[in-house]
Design brief:
This protein is α+β, with helices and mostly antiparallel strands. Helices cover 44% and strands 19% of the residues. The two termini are 35 Å apart.
Length: 305
């Protein structure tokens, strides 16, 4: 399943009903494997005390990060009250929705919320080939500039979810899940990851992305972002894993695609060149000959019928 960004505001409608407000801008990001992550922005401008009642109990987590400096909060769960204190910009909180916690708010706030079901966490842990996390733990008063930066980057997409770039949102949610599992789920950071190459999920994602862009122009930065890596780290790890640079691997895939299309005698070689990402027929001929040992036209004659 390809990743998608859902503009139907399901998550926002749920929050609006629960908290009695007119509208909450939101979107739902769906991964390639079908797991969902809801994203929403909520803000309140009045310095009046009110209560945010608990959302219905479910096996999921609600992550919130302050986009601006906020006021004081109190979280009530199981009869105990936890004072969060002054919420500065970047203040981060994780609520376990199975605990049915209420929040007491007495000042303006501006937050981005991430709804992360257990199924989404488990699916991502499986992608990363790491053990499933038992819980997410975040100390009161935590300030997380990484999540704050991701939240701010989401604001344009939340303002116009129908026009949001699926690839952009997918990159941000990938980074969010990786960061949260490491920082709050106890997933160890593997310092030897670069020397060992790509993780299986990264290799699958990189190859799928390159195949999807076989006929077009794709940058190393774009593929690296798909794997939540820097360009240099990705390039070294890809070669360590596959024995080829990303460019060499992509060229080989283009040659193989051209070979398949050459089996269709009615297709002009110039059209095959364009369909497989070569600049023109002569470019295809040079590269194809170097890989296969003969020109496309001769290969077609020898393998016709």
């Amino acid at each position: 399943m390809p990743p998608s960004t859902c503009p139907d505001n399901r998550f926002g409608q749920r929050l609006a009903r629960q908290y009695g407000v007119d509208a909450v801008p939101s979107l739902v990001a769906t991964s390639r494997w079908g797991s969902e992550l809801g994203i929403a922005r909520m803000h309140y401008d009045q310095p009046h005390l009110f209560v945010l009642p608990p959302l219905p109990s479910e096996d999921a987590f609600l992550l919130s990060v302050e986009i601006d400096a906020g006021g004081s909060r109190r979280i009530c769960k199981g009869g105990a009250t936890q004072r969060l204190g002054l919420q500065q910009e970047g203040a981060f909180h994780i609520a376990d929705l199975s605990e049915c916690a209420s929040a007491y708010v007495c000042s303006p706030f501006n937050v981005v919320l991430f709804h992360m079901p257990r199924a989404t966490i488990d699916a991502f842990a499986s992608e990363m080939d790491v053990p499933r996390v038992g819980a997410l733990h975040c100390e009161a008063g935590t300030v997380d500039p990484v999540v704050a930066g991701l939240g701010r980057a989401m604001l344009p997409a939340l303002a116009q979810p129908e026009a949001a770039s699926t690839l952009f949102v997918d990159h941000l949610t990938l980074a969010l899940k990786a960061h949260v599992l490491h920082a709050y789920g106890g997933v160890a950071c593997d310092v030897n990851a670069e020397s060992r190459g790509l993780a299986p999920w990264q290799e699958r994602r990189a190859k799928a992305f390159l195949r999807e862009h076989l006929a077009g122009d794709v940058s190393l930065a774009e593929v690296a972002r798909e794997c939540a890596l820097s360009r240099s780290h990705f390039s070294k790890s890809f070669k360590q894993t596959t024995g080829q640079t990303p460019h060499a691997w992509l060229v080989a895939q283009r040659v193989e695609a051209a070979r398949r299309l050459l089996g269709q005698a009615e297709l002009p070689i110039a059209e095959i060149a364009a369909a497989c990402g070569f600049s023109d027929q002569s470019h295809l001929t040079r590269v194809f000959s170097a890989h296969v040992g003969t020109s496309p036209a001769r290969w077609r004659r020898l393998n016709a019928g």
